[in-house]
Amino acid sequence: MHESGIKGVMQGGTINDGTRDYQPLRSKQYDLKKLHITEMPITWSNCVIYYFNTGLGITAGYHRLWAHTSYKATLPLQIYLAAVGVGAAEGSIRWWSKGHRAHHRYTDTVKDPYSVRKGFIYAHIGWLVMKQNPKRIGRSDITDLNEDPIVVWQHVNYLKCVIFMALIFPTLVCGLGWGDWFGGFVYAGVLRATFVQQATFCINSLAHWLGDQPFDDRNSPRDNWITALQLQKKLDQKRSKLDWGVPLDQLPIIEWDDFVAQSKATDGTGRALVTVAGVVHDVTDFVKEHPGGKALISSAIGKDATAIFNGGVYLHSNAAHNLLSTMRVGVIRGGGEVEMWKRVHAEDKDKLMVRDSGGKPIVRAGDQPTRIGRERECATAA
């Protein structure tokens, strides 16, 4: 359209659509030459990029690094994860990890801070917006977090951090970068944080409500096609190559007094030994990495922790039993069922081994000797 035509269409800063009673919906100050927010796709790109960064801060930082201490991170990585994690506006590392540890320790009980037993909406977002009774929430050990300077600093300065990283930072990037201040605030700030939060909350609600429980149905967590897609054959192939520690029939038999003495030795030869279901485990290198904290696992050293491990303090998962099996170093004399199991394994090992679809021996979920909470068949009365 020629310039004269454009001037004919536009009169007095408004658009002449041919009607005499035309009332412009936009203000007179609106500049038609300026791109509208919906016509600036670069803001959407920034939104997606920052979404994955803040999501990584929650999953790799808040969850795996600090709540579960699954790995060790360098100082620059810790600072990065703490910075982008707070941008998700889900609380401080200390507060988030404390609640998550309590959730794992008291899953599906009244002490679970976001138990799905209290309702889907409560597990999804109700626990966050409703004030909970601090006396009802289960306690968890966070001494390691209280000694972490990054965690402490972020917790003390949380309000300033969350306002800057969740709203001001994305607004500055979009505004200074390409002049889209409003888009940076709305899309990369508010809406991006909302989507990150909903993705996290779905783990607390949908992941405990929809799906199957092919391996362990004692608690509410479930698997579904959205979160995991695996073929049984592939699982069997990987499982047959897993190392579950020294086989029971190859473990030495240890006297109880020797077990206690070695656990309490102060001459430098002592080890952090724990007995579960008659099997001795050396957890010396695992004490600092224990997700439940040092205090809990240290209290079981030199003792029979069968009841503690199987629900007395925390009902450990199949994964925990499998991990514990890699630490076994002996069998307590008089362990009864364990010694019998060891003897039978040595005499008729081939008949007892569970095999996968390819004929290789494997350990199925729940088959570790340390798990004693299973129902067993009993002989009927004569």
Which structural class is indicated by helix and strand composition? alpha+beta
Radius of gyration: 29 Å
Low-confidence stretches: 213-222, 374-382
- Give the fraction of residues assigned to helices: 40-55%
Number of beta-strand segments: 8
Mean pLDDT value: 73
Number of structural domains: 3
Termini separation comes to 102 Å
Side-by-side strand order of the widest sheet: 3-6-5-4
**In this structure, how is the largest beta sheet organized?**
4 strands, mixed
Q: How much of the residues is beta strand, in percent?
A: 5-15%
**What is the helix tally?**
16
Give the ordered list of helices and strands.
HEEHHHHHHHHHEHEEHHHEHHEE
Globally, the shape reads elongated
Annotation keywords:
single chain, 382 residues, alpha+beta, Flavocytochrome B2, Chain A, domain 1, 3 domains, four-stranded mixed beta sheet, two-stranded antiparallel sheet, 16 helices, 8 strands, 46% helix, 6% strand, elongated, disordered C terminus, stearoyl-CoA 9-desaturase, lipid biosynthesis, metal-binding, transport
